[in-house]
Specification:
The chain is an all-beta fold. The chain has 2 domains: 190 residues; 73 residues, Sandwich (Immunoglobulin-like), CATH 2.60.40. Helix content is 0%, strand content 55%. It has no helices and 21 strands. An 8-stranded antiparallel beta sheet has the order 7-6-5-4-3-2-13-14, with no helix packed on it. Strands 1, 8, 9, 10, 11 and 12 form a 6-stranded antiparallel beta sheet that branches. The protein is elongated.
């Protein structure tokens, strides 16, 4: 099982080496969205990814997509392009604005946009620290930001990953107080390169009213399980469906009216999520570790 490390190795006022690009395909950000609903505070996961090209006024962009249903469907969130370590974001018919400026040094100020604003009402930022950190074995520059009028609100950018609030969520709270976003995981070519150890998961979903916790226990054995073996599901409930997800939130397989054993011999080593559904449309989730 992998360990995810996040270790400070160096603090500098200016850091210069080959930059890690932000706007590339095969990248994915899983972001927790927390909102106040009828049943209290609830959470779900937004998945952003870059795929496909677009051309506007002869300027080439990459398409940014969002999925809120485990990648079963997705919709266009906006357009991205990167030039000289500056990332530009464009929504609908709005003019593009600066989403990230990865050239900034300590003491520099700038104006950036996010999902909720444009160049008409940008967010003023100031870099108060810049340091080299090791994130899951990869050296990245980390910026610490402060915001005009909010000296107690700090935020972090990671080179190639962006805001730890989410890819297009820098200072989202500047224009709203609810909901709230937090980056859970970042993938590059399906490999986890950032893992939020406080949240300790890459996928959360409690917004669906049908996803209430089952009051009778479901026992999964063995867990962890060695690759090539199968799982035994023990429960007094009538289980109608088991869904198997990877940590990116992608649905891998659905077992309908499963027996006491489910066959997972095809799975590689890693962490998976089992969503177990019983009558009357209740469900719970379990983390599955395959060794």
């Amino acid at each position: 099982m992998k360990k995810y490390s996040y270790t400070l190795v160096l603090t500098l006022t200016a850091i210069s080496f080959i930059a890690q690009n932000f706007v590339l395909e095969n990248k994915q950000w899983n972001t927790k969205l927390v909102a106040l609903g009828m049943n209290g505070v609830q959470s779900t996961t937004e998945i952003h990814f870059i795929e496909g090209d677009s051309l506007h006024n002869s300027v080439p962009y990459k398409k940014l997509w969002i999925s809120v249903d485990s990648l079963e469907t997705s919709s266009l969130q906006g357009l991205l392009r990167e030039q000289n370590n500056i990332v530009y974001f464009k929504q609908n018919n709005q003019d593009e604005g600066i989403l990230y400026d990865f050239n900034l040094d300590i003491g520099d100020t700038a104006e950036v946009i996010n999902l909720f604003t444009d160049i008409t009402y940008p967010v003023p930022i100031e870099v108060i620290n810049k340091e080299l950190v090791n994130v899951n074995g990869i050296d990245r520059i980390r910026w610490e930001l402060e915001f005009d009028g909010y000296p107690d609100r700090h935020e972090y950018w990671l080179e190639g990953i962006g805001s730890l609030n989410g890819p297009i969520h820098t200072a989202y709270w500047y224009y709203m107080t609810c909901p709230a976003w937090t980056l859970l995981c970042y993938y590059n070519n399906e490999e986890i390169e950032y893992f939020n150890e406080i949240e300790n998961t890459c996928y959360i979903n409690s917004l669906n009213n049908s996803e209430n916790l089952i009051d009778k226990p479901i026992i999964i054995n063995p867990n962890p399980v060695h690759t090539g073996k199968n799982l035994h599901i023990d429960s007094l409930l009538h289980i109608t469906q088991i869904q198997l997800f990877n940590t990116q939130g992608k649905l891998l397989k659905t077992y309908l009216n499963p027996a006491k054993f489910i066959y997972i011999s095809h799975l590689k080593s890693g962490i998976y999520i089992l969503k177990i559904i019983s009558d009357p449309k209740k469900s719970e989730t379990h983390k599955l570790i395959v060794l």
